[in-house]
Amino acid sequence: MKNLPLRALCLALLSLSYAAAGAAEPPAGIDAQYSPEYTPCMEKGAGETSAMVKCMSEEQAKQDKRLQTAYDMVLERASAGQKAKLEKAQQAWVAFRAANAEFYNDPDNGETAHLSSADMFLQMTAERALD
């Protein structure tokens, strides 16, 4: 797997994860939401799982901050009634994201399961920050 170009590996993982979910392709605009450091980090990892997981973890921290900032801004502007609904919706989404990532982390799929799970978690976070 080390000789497989990183972009091809990532695209294959994405295709598998979206195929398993019944989706044709990643949501539009997600890649543009990743930090400028993410793609070079993944390319530098040269397809090694531990390096890719490290890049994903670092990007996840950045996306978590983006999401929290967006959430706080919306919460600040919302009426009292809407705040309660937003908090309830966000709690449900956080639980769904965790359960979805757990689903993708299928031990029968070996090493790629962890990557697929981390990638799905990252994409869901970036997508939610766009909402």
What does this 3D model show about the protein?
The chain has 131 residues and is mainly alpha-helical. The chain is built from six helices and no strands. The longest helix has 29 residues. It is flat and about 50 Å long. The termini are far apart. 17% of the residues are buried. The N terminus is likely disordered.
Please specify the SSE layout and strand pairing:
Elements: H1 6-21, H2 30-33, H3 38-44, H4 49-77, H5 80-104, H6 111-130
Helix pairs in contact: 1-6, 3-4, 4-6, 5-6
What is the structure about, briefly put?
With 131 residues, the protein is an all-alpha fold.
List the main descriptive attributes of the protein structure presented here.
131 residues, mainly alpha, 6 helices, flat, disordered N terminus
User: In DSSP terms, counting alpha (H) and pi (I) runs of 4 or more, how many helices?
Assistant: 6
Mean pLDDT: 81
Structural class: mainly alpha
Distance between the termini: 36 Å
The shape, in one word, is: flat
The total of beta strands comes to 0
Instruction: Give the H and E element order.
Output: HHHHHH
Rg, nearest Å: 16 Å
